[in-house]
Write a structure and sequence with these properties.
Order of helices and strands: HEHEHEHEHHEHEHEHHEHEHEEEEEEEE
Structural class: alpha/beta
Shape: globular
CATH class of one domain: Alpha Beta
Radius of gyration: 22 Å
Mean pLDDT: 92
Strand content: 15-25%
Number of helices: 12
CATH architecture of one domain: Alpha-Beta Barrel
């Protein structure tokens, strides 16, 4: 729980820095990394870069035991990372692009780069993706590594899509559909099928212990348990079908919220995680684990309109997803502050109410947490790295390196 000692440490460490600012608590980040490895139970963890968006942090965790490979969001990002790491100890890190690409320019860059082409794998879920690559590169293009995405949502009504629980991603659901697409890829010149991937968002992305809603939590745990059981059988069958066509290098599954259940599936060779390194508020409502808040941001008090209200500068860092209160940043320190329901977090100001507000003065800082891990890096060009009670380094985010892939 947050306390005044934590606030005093943060304020003292950053007193020479101007707010707004964002910090990485390196001790918390490393503890979170250790916990992810523990939860993975021996499965290597592929780091989801979308949840980090800071090369310093990606490189730090990739050099730890238990982590291997990157799951990138876009092909331009994958090419950038491969280029930056060429000639370093991370030069052989393989990079899986988690979403299909329709970027002709990036595909041409991939085809022309022998180093990147040996490391980067693009995602496909239909022959249309293969057609697009051929259209971008020509029919006689160099071999492109591809991963087939399996829809791992739960369809509780006899496997039919009339009841779909999970994210809307791949159209490939059944083992037979996997076999057919794997055969198409295998028979298509210029492509090599190396992986199978599935993101179980209904398990990994839904907290099973929602605050103040025990009945909903019970329903979620029931759903997630049944979904995991069904998926273990179907994914194993899908992997078996692909094996009839060719050998896979990896089978990727999971996310921060589902590592334990995904790792129990014997067909999975690696798990994906990223948000668990950062510890945003989205992961406060899980029963199996509690990541430490490793990235925080501070906003300065610029007004005191009332005795128990303080108005902060900026702060409207609203997370993606279904709009709602749970997408807003959360006041963290001093404890006892909350956003105002009629105004919320705004682009230019964020008022907060609470008993602690009466002691705040113009120029003081309020520390907040964001909802989704990587999205804070879109708001700040740098993170101040905190170890113990001092800032030891200041490092750029993707934005700070002039990159915007989203």
């Amino acid at each position: 729980m947050p306390d005044e000692t934590s606030r005093a440490r943060l304020d003292a460490a950053t007193k020479q820095l101007e707010a707004p600012l964002a910090v990485v608590d390196l001790d918390a980040f490393d503890r979170n990394a250790e916990d992810l490895v523990r939860r993975a139970g021996g499965r290597p963890i592929r780091v989801a870069s979308k949840s980090v968006r800071c090369r310093y942090l990606l490189e730090r965790v990739l050099r730890r035991d238990g982590f291997a490979g990157v799951m990138a969001y876009s092909l331009p990002e994958a090419l950038w990372l491969a280029g930056r790491w060429a000639g370093t100890d991370l030069a052989r890190v393989d990079i899986l692009v988690a979403y299909p690409t329709v970027d002709h320019t990036a595909l041409c860059r991939l085809a022309a780069d022998d180093h990147a082409r040996g490391l980067v794998t693009i995602m496909v879920d239909s022959a249309a993706h293969l057609d697009l690559v051929d259209a971008a590169l020509g029919a006689d293009h160099p071999e492109i590594r591809v991963c087939l995405e399996l829809d791992v949502s739960w369809r509780p009504v006899f496997g039919r899509d009339i009841a779909h629980v999970g994210t809307r991603r791949s159209p490939v659901f059944s083992p037979a559909q996997v076999r057919d697409l794997a055969t198409t890829i295998h028979d298509r010149p210029g492509f090599r099928l190396v992986g199978l991937m599935g993101y179980e968002g209904q398990i990994a992305g839904l907290g099973d212990r929602p605050t103040g809603k025990p009945l909903l939590g019970a329903v979620l745990r029931w759903m997630q348990g049944h979904s995991a059981q069904e998926l273990a059988v179907r994914r194993t069958a899908a992997v078996r079908e692909v094996g009839k066509v060719g050998e896979l290098e990896f089978v990727n599954g999971g996310g921060t919220g589902s590592i334990e259940t995904t790792a129990l599936d014997p067909s999975v060779t690696e798990v994906a995680a990223g948000s668990g390194l950062i510890g945003p508020t989205l992961f406060d409502n899980y029963q199996r684990f509690t990541p430490a808040p490793a990235v925080l941001f501070a906003l300065p008090v610029v007004r005191k309109p009332r005795r128990r209200t303080a108005t902060l500068f900026s702060g409207g860092f609203i997370a993606s997803g279904i709009p709602g209160k749970d997408r807003s940043p959360t006041p963290y320190l001093p404890a006892g502050l909350s956003l105002i329901g009629t105004e919320g977090a705004g682009e230019v100001q964020t008022p907060v109410n609470g008993r602690a507000a009466k002691d705040l003065r113009v120029g003081d800082r309020v520390w907040l947490r964001h909802t989704k891990a990587g999205e804070l890096a879109e708001r700040f060009t740098e993170y101040h790295v905190l170890s113990g009670d001092r800032v030891v380094e200041t490092v750029p985010t993707y934005r700070g390196e002039g990159q915007c892939f989203y």
